[in-house]
Every structure is written in structure tokens, then in C-alpha cells.
């Protein structure tokens, strides 16, 4: 069964715009504003509370994870950090090489 298209009403069936303006002017904006503020407070305070709780929990978990990672790696100046520094940083700037100024070979050869 085919559905018939919706029936369109003539423009004369629309409400009179002057009635809408009159109805809008009779709205008590003071009570509407009070209701809006009540609803904002009723939903905003719990939402703000949960944002603060979740933020604090996230910060606490991140801090604990960082401390755990440092403990597992031997702390800031631990053996793992020292090995990493030896392998990947240029720590020979302030140290004299036992093989001479050029690196390998007898002193003065390079």
C-alpha cells in the first residue's frame, strides 16, 4: 500500500503572529531566570565535583606510576640511568681517554 503525501495546510491555518508576540510578552522572565539558575546549580555542582575527583585521581595515579618507574629503573641516578648515559650521551667531553687525546692508539699518535 502506497502512502499518500502529507497534506499541506493553507497559510490561513497558521496562528496569528500578533498572538505569539502577546504570549511571549506575558512570560515571567524573573521566574524563568530563577529556574535556569536552579537547574544550572543542580547539575553543575555535582559535575564540578566529579571533574575535581577524576582530576585528582588521575594526578595521583600518574605520580605513583612515575615513582614506580623510577624505582624499577634504579632512581634518577641509578645503574640503568648511568648505563643509558654511558651509551647514548657524549660524556667524554670532560673525561680524558686512557688511550690518548684521539681515542685509540698511543698518546700523541693522532
Structure description:
It is a single chain. The chain is an all-alpha fold. It contains 3 helices and no strands. The protein is elongated, with a radius of gyration of 38 Å.
Low-confidence stretches: none
**Mean pLDDT across all amino acids:** 76
Range of helix content: 55-70%
* Element string (H = helix, E = strand): HHH
Compute the CA-based radius of gyration.
Answer: 38 Å
Shape: elongated
Q: Outline the biggest β-sheet.
A: none
Q: What is the helix tally?
A: 3
Structural class: mainly alpha
- For the termini, the CA-CA separation is 99 Å
**How many beta-strand runs?**
0
Q: What is the percentage of strand-forming residues? A: under 5%
Give the SSE layout.
Layout: H1 17-25, H2 29-72, H3 79-88
Notable features of this structure?
3 helices, 57% helix, elongated
In a nutshell, what does this entry contain?
This protein is mostly helical and 110 residues long. The protein has 3 helices and no strands.
